[in-house]
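user: At home tonight, take the chain set out below, taking as long as you need, and be ready to discuss the fold:
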Amino acid sequence: MRPMILTMSAFGSYADCVTIDFGQVQQGVFLITGDTGAGKTTIFDGITYALYGQTSGGRRDGTMMRSQYAPDGTKTYVDLTFSTGGQVWRVLRSPEYERESKRRNKDGGRTMTKERGSVELYQPDGSLYPGNRQEVNRKLVEILGVDARQFMQIAMIAQGDFLRLLLAKSDERKEIFSRIFDTRIFGRVQEELKNRNKRCYGELEDNRKSCLREIEQLEVSESTVQEKEELLRTGQKEPDLEAVLAFAERMLEEDKLQYEQSRKEMKKTTATLEKLNQRYSVEKERAESFSKLAQLEKQIRVLEEKREEKEQEKERIGAAKRAAKVEMVYVGYRETAESRERMQMQEKQLKAWLEERKEETEKLKEKEKTWNSYVQKLEEKEVPVLERLRQALEQYGQLQSHLKEAQRLEIHRQQAADSYRKADLSYRQQAQRYETLYQEYLAGQAGILASGLQDNYPCPVCGSLHHPAPAEPVSENLSQELVEKERERRNQAENTREDRRQKYQQSENLYQQEIAVIREQQTHLLHREQTEEESLEVMKNRWEDWEEKARKRLIDGEEKLQISKKELDRISGSLQKFLQEENRKKGQLEEVQRQCKTLKQQEQEKQNAYEQVRREQLFEKEEDFKKACMKPAELERRQKAIDAYEEELRRSCQEVEWLRSQLKEKEAPDLEQTEKELKEQKEQQRLKERELRKLYSRRETNQQANRRLQQLTKEREELRKRYQVLNTLSRTANGSLTGTAKIDLESYMQRQYFQHMIRCANRHLERMAAGQFLLKCRSMENLSTQGNTGLDLDVYSLITGKVRDVKTLSGGESFMAALALALGMTDVITQAVGAVHIDTLFIDEGFGSLDENAREQAIRILQGLSGGSRLVGIISHVTELKEQIEQKLVVTKGKSGSKVEWK
């Protein structure tokens, strides 16, 4: 890849649009110089951002590269044209950034708006590559053959990486190679092995702690407590699982024997308790029978004392039953009497109501007659007037149609008039052009004749031999054909004008006819002659005013007539309701009077029947009957109470007789002694049961602990084997094996790259140092066993044949070795990514630390590197380099941004 043209706008320190044409440097070394912070490295940043959307330092992305000096209207972008593989490509990329909006907010201030990023790739044929941003980025990586990280490693030797790589310790060089050759995956393998080893060791420790917990869970007798504590002390370092399992098995066997013995004793205690329970049940039942007999005898004595009271209650219940028969007839008699009284009251109320309504009905009849007369007079007066208004408004609607048509015709007339005026003007202008051209044409004919006149020869027009003022010839382009065309245009304009005039006359006639019709209708509606010629607008305004008044008069008249009719209807309706209600009340009064008569007869018949039944049931007076009356619920309750008393007395007597026969010749038992024996036996059973549960629980706990210990023993054996393998792998990969060189896996893999890089560097160094010395990777047998090793660098002198430390090199030798090592690293990276050719190299290095000879030697070396088609750019501000390198790209820093130019 070789850059051709780079354009940066509002990018980095460049506020305006700057363009760098790398075609001015055909080959060799060129210098990028300028003040510190002017934007020298930004040039490489621009190339990197255009290709990958990233900057070379990796600390800033595209969104941070907008220039702080750029005006709001200047767009930020990078445009790069480059060649690769014999083809020319162009990429245009702009980042996403914020800028001030052109609009203002309510306070008058500017708001911020986001400018979206974009990327465009133009192919060698000039067409735009189709695809979104991700697809374009993938295409660029495919074209270049390297990604952003690899490109920055190949095409850019950053400031300070020369001597830092040469003189670095093995640890520092490992960190550099980890980034350059991306060997971090091997470091992650080391770390993963170390972590797995730690996890496995942690699992072993967890297993040991679990074993101790399970031993602690074992429940043992007092004789084996000391043995358990000894096992726990041993397990603090490494548990003896075989001894632990044997101890657990012995405890289980002991638990089994004790549990069986306790279970047999429990069965004996339970059998004794069952016999006591049976004896206690028999004695308790007999004691309850003696107690029940005593209670029943006491209960019978209490019932006998209530016998007289119950006999009196029976007599009250008999009287209540006889009174109930009388009450059935008495209720019918009282209901009929109350109904007659209610009817008489209703008759009185109806008569009073009819008397009150009579006066109100007469007033409503008089009011209806008055409103009926008023409505008739109002109809005679208003109906003819309203009818005439309706007809007039209907005619006005027709007039409105004519007014609208007249307005349309007036617009059409104005348009026709305007069209006619334009056609007339066009005709006059065309006629004027024709006359002017015609006169010029005639004058031209005279000039043609004058061109052939000679002195002493007669004029063909006037015959004169002398020609003192012959006509001048006119334009050669003027011809009779041109004049004829102009005359045709004049005739055409005249015809157009005549056509427009006729159309205008037709529009005028139609408009005047419509106006005549409107005036005739207006005269008919207003019932007066037209006294003056009114315009269409005046007639329209007049009729709009008339229409408003007419419609208002019509609405008011109809509303007044409607209100009067509604009021008459309301009064008539009220009168009809009054009359209907009065008739209904009269009918009710007749019905009530008839029912009063019927109820009076029924009342007398039921009174006679009531008195007869009362005497039959032995109640001489009404007061005696009412006193004996009792509510049905009360009567039922008292009857049930008597029946229950008699039943209880009978049942108690029978039960006493039965109990006396059962307990004959038997004595009451001593329950207290039996209960005492039963309580002692239950307590003994509870103790045995608790001991049995404790033994069962201990056996279950020990069985679970034993099973868990067996499982933990298997797991520990597997973990121990896995830990031995992982520990060996981890120590080997991390270089921590005792008695060996401290080289880890990542350093070992980097050592392969390092050796390859040294071979490539020695090819460059052989030319630079004239075969005086070479770089050499320190051999494995010479590596130190202390600290990280494997990437140590030595110098082999071809003159003395001895190996010495790289730090013994002089300043010039160090520079040559460092530069060769950096170029060797670039060669290795290029080979690592395949057949990729990056024809441009940027070196950002401080040459100020070199003396004059070393600097000249460095320039010659770099010029030798660029002897082919390779382009080498040195980013530096050293003054002496400006004299040694002819081709310079000068970056100038200003208050409003930086600028560049070739010198």
User: Anything to note?
Assistant: The CA atoms of residues 205 and 888 lie 69 Å apart.
